[in-house]
Design goal:
mainly beta, seven-stranded mixed sheet, about 0% helix, four-stranded antiparallel sheet
Length: about 130
């Protein structure tokens, strides 16, 4: 069983930056692909960025590519999301997710992830 705890959310003006972190415990972190998803009010949860077990492969949604960076530390068992040039449409609850993978691949599908954090709110004002 893997437990995930997000931190770093908050409120920021458009154009600003935030860094989200997710601390994992209870599993062998380096065997899990990790992802960040988000859900805005009235909308479905959507993928933001994902990273492979080693960190060597990443995936970004088109809406955040070039502005967000996902990274992981397999010693500290953490995954981070650096968010720059934030826009009001980035406002959502952001979730960290973990999914076991037998190889070093990324997965952008919700169903790939068995474990989820409780979410952290990001609000971007114009």
């Amino acid at each position: 069983q893997v437990q995930l705890v997000e931190s770093g959310g908050g409120s920021v003006q458009a154009g600003g930056s935030l860094r989200l972190s997710c601390a994992a415990s209870g599993g062998i972190f380096s065997t899990y692909a990790m992802g960040w998803f988000r859900q805005a009010p009235g909308k479905e949860r959507e993928v933001v960025a994902t990273i492979s077990r080693s960190g060597g492969r990443t995936y970004y949604a088109a809406s955040v590519k070039g502005r967000f960076t996902i990274s992981r530390d397999n010693v500290k068992n953490t995954v981070s999301l650096q968010m720059n040039s934030l826009k009001p449409e980035d406002t959502a609850v952001y979730y960290c997710a973990a999914g076991y993978r037998s190889s070093d691949v990324v997965c952008s599908i919700y169903g790939c992830y068995e474990y989820w954090g409780q979410g952290t709110q990001v609000t971007v004002s114009s």
